[in-house]
Amino acid sequence: MFKKIIFSFLFIFVGIISISSCGKTPPANGLHQEFYESGSLAKETNYKSGRKHGLSSEYYSNGKVKSESNYVSGKREGLYREYYEDGQLQREGRYRNDELVGPDRSYYANGQVKAEYIYEDNQIHGPFKEHYENGQLRQTGDYIRGQKQGLVMRYFQSGKVQSTANFKSGLEDGDRREYYEAGQIKRVENLLQGQVEGMSRQYYPSGKLMTLEGFRNGKRQGIFKKYSEQGTLVFLWNYQGGKLAGEGREYHDNGEWKRIYHHHNDLLHGLVKEFDDNGRLQKQEHYIKGKKGGKVKTFYANGQMDTLESYRYNQLHGLSQGFAPNGILVREANFLDGLLDGPVREYYKTGQLKKETFYKSDKRDGPEKEYYPNGTLQFERLYENGQLITSQQYSFNNQVAISTH
Question: CA 256, CA 226: separation in Å to the nearest integer?
Fold first, then answer.
């Protein structure tokens, strides 16, 4: 009799230890608990013969339930639920032999249904619905063995159709259409195994054609045109393998050329010309593999040159000149890798020298002189590394008027 009492006591004691187990290693049988650093319960799971068996729950640090699942011999079985931190249901579904089966629903924090799926053999299979937070339908379609199949429709929150697309084995395949919320067609294109193929057309809400572009294997190929709502061409580009190539043109509203250029391997390459809406040349520059290089010219409306500059690797380099509308030189400077270097001269419209300054690494360095229109000296200064050292001002008759050191 005494032996039986001792055995019963030990059995009860071991059972208590098993139920309250909270170490890193779960017990073979009983309840295992895990805790946050704060001491609050984080997770509790029942075990039987070393495998999860029964209810398993996770908790937020505030004590609210985060998820609930049921296990049978280590496999999920039956209903499972996930919750928001305030206790609101976030998702619910069902397992059979550790695989999702049947209806599966997720919810917004306000309680509205977010998505409705059906599972078969752990894959989405059958019709599905997705909703906006206000409850309005967002997307509908079908899945077959985890992949979208057939017509899939998307909706605006107003309930109007936003787009229609066809799927085959999880990839868009066939006609795709997008709509404005008022119902007008926005874009029409064809897809082949998930990639745009052939001509894609985009429209203004008025129904006028906006863009026309070609695709091959999902990449832009051939001509890309954009039109204004009035029907005039805005630009015309060419693509090869998804990259800009060949001649491109931009147009003014009146149809006159605005800009002409060339691309190679998606980079500007070659001569670029810009025109005003009367067809007069305004600017001419040259690019080498996307970087401005060589002479850059700008012009007045009368055709006279406004500026003549030299570039290297996208930076001013060499002589830069500016002219008056009558062709008279009014400014010239030298640049080295984008920085002023050497003399900078300004001229009166008569051609008479007005000012001369020397620069080094973009800072004034050396003498600077300014002249009256008659050619007599007005100011004389000396700079060193950008700092003024001395300055003298002369009267019209070349007499020293002010001198500073």
Answer: 15
- The H or E element spanning position 8 is helix 2-19
Nearest CA to 40 out of 60, 26, 18 is that of: 60
Residues 121, 126, 132: CA angle, nearest 5 degrees = 115
**71/96 Cα distance (integer angstroms):** 10
pLDDT of residue 395: 86
For residues 178 and 162, is the Cβ–Cβ distance under 8 A?
A: yes
For 70-105, what is each residue's pLDDT tens digit?
999 999 999 999 999 999 999 999 999 999 999 999
293 neighbors 316 (Cβ within 8 angstroms):
no
Strands 243-244 and 377-384: unpaired
Distance (Å, whole) CA 172 – CA 164: 10
The Cα–Cα gap between 380 and 373 comes to: 15
What angle (nearest 5°) sits at the alpha carbon of residue 302, between those of residues 299 and 308?
Answer: 20
Instruction: Quote helix, strand, coil % in the chain, to nearest 5.
Output: 5, 65, 30
> Phi and psi at residue 88, in whole multiples of 5°?
-70, 140
Distance CA 211, CA 236 (A): 10
Q: Do residues 292 and 283 touch, judged by C-beta distance below 8 A?
A: no
The DSSP string of 89-105 is: EEEEEEEETTEE-EEEE
| pTM more than 0.85 | no
Whether 402 has a pLDDT exceeding 80, the answer reads no
Rounded distance between C-alpha atoms, residue 388 and residue 403, angstroms: 13
Count the Cβ atoms, other than its own, within 10 Å of residue 342. 15
pLDDT in tens, 329-372: 999 999 999 999 999 999 998 899 999 999 999 999 999 999 99
Is-contact 364 356, C-beta < 8 A?
no
Longest dimension (CA), the chain: 136
Q: Provide the strand spans (E) within 337-386.
A: 339-340, 342-347, 353-360, 363-371, 377-384
**pLDDT class of 396 with cuts at 50, 70, 90:** confident
DSSP-derived secondary structure letter, 21: B
d(CA 62, CA 41): 9
